[in-house]
Amino acid sequence: MTEPILKIENLSLRREDRPILNDVNLEIYPAQVHALLGLNGSGKSSLAYTIMGCEGYTPDRGRILFEGKDITHLSITERARLGITLAWQEPARFEGIPVGKYVGLGVNPPDRERVIQALEAVALPAKVYGYRSADKTLSGGERKRVELAAVYAMRPRLAILDEPDSGIDILSLGEIANLIRRMAIEGVAVFLITHRDELVETADVVSLICAGTILFTGKPLEARRYFTSRCIPHLEALGSQPWDTSKPEVQEAFASNGLLKLVAQAAERQTGKEQSA
Questions:
Q1: 9-39 pLDDT, tens digit each
Q2: Max alpha carbon distance in the chain (Å)?
């Protein structure tokens, strides 16, 4: 059986003395699209930053294994060298650098045709965008496409796509989904992070996250049913996460998902770990 390219074991993270991730376990396999679906504030981006090794996101407990190697305490630069990359939810601006050059920064050895192919894959014609400056004149949607093109061009081992659909109009979601599948066909493991359940149809496997805890992992159709029937109603009733877990209505929502038990178990394990340390 194929071994996972990324394995997360019992991962917990606190920031500013507030629990962000609670006992997360996850496996992603080569050439697989694994989607992480959750409400805003549920811990999706925090998990992405923790996997990437961003500053301030060193886990309090647990391990991150990449191709069997423990990378929990490696720097973001060391992880990038291993072939892990992150497409940020808010793409960076590089004033003065042409779009084509930006897309080709991670392509080694340099490959002009690969850059053109990447731009075409996100519906940005190379003749129009190749020499255009990657600055504030680009719309949010265009900058997001440029970021995705850069990730596609470099052919990483693992691509973490944080909300690739943000700033993208609904008619363009199909193009983004096609790009994601294309990456997987070329052998890239894709960790797709989104709060839009319609995008998870492109995934092979979907995990649902709520309050920093994985509730469910399974097929896209099952995940969408769970999300629309149990997660969305809580958003409408309680608003965006993080929620105040001391409130009875929040505890009731957690209990209906079986989440209260999961969070309690994670807290008990964390307490036991701290006492034994």
A1: 999 999 988 889 999 999 999 999 999 998 8
A2: 62
